Amino acid sequence: MKVALIMTTTVDGFTTRSATEDAGWVSEYDKLFFDQKTRAIGTVIMGANTYRVLPEPFEARLNIVMMSTPDETKNIQNVLEFHGEEPRRLIQILEARGIDEVAIIGGSQINASFLEENLVDELYITIAPMVFGQGVSLSSGYDLDLQLRLLEIEQIGSDVALLHYEVVK
Q1: Contact 166/49 with Cβ under 8 angstroms?
Q2: Strand partners for 110
Q3: Mean pLDDT, range 138-158, rounded to an integer
């Protein structure tokens, strides 16, 4: 299973100012990249807070929401699923269904839980031309020690950079 983490952060590493804030899009180019990349991958995994700020599930993708007490009666086949499994077990379940690639799209606890389990293979980080000074980081509250290899830097729009990293395993 290939696991990509796709996030936008400010220059100082924050994804939002608070856990209940919608990060929004840095630019139309950021939104276009996210849309194209996650459609190509086909499955997105997010936490409950990320799901709550969405107006609706992402189209043409399987949306998986990880939460401690999922309500599986709200599942919509091949569109939206709620899961309570740990990251490694969720990946096993998806692999058994023939899914071979997923995108982790936040929030910080979901990001960190996949990073901590060494399940992430690559990261796509859009750097927003902003500084918050405080807020929710890419992986808040976890003690991580990962090495990354920069694969590509792409300027998207006039002030936004997209960094593509590989996790060194």
Answers
A1: no
A2: none
A3: 90
Q: Among 123, 67, 96, which residue's Cα sits nearest to residue 1?
A: 96
Asked if 38 and 58 touch (Cβ cutoff 8 Å), the reply is yes
- The pLDDT value recorded for residue 24 is 66
DSSP 11-73: TTSEEESSTTS----S-HHHHHHHHHHHHHH-EEEEEHHHHHHSSSPPTTSEEEEE-SS--GG
Of 36-40, 51-55, 95-99, 120-124, least confident by mean pLDDT is: 51-55
Structure tokens at 30: 């950021």
Q: Which two tokens stand for residue 77?
A: 């086949």
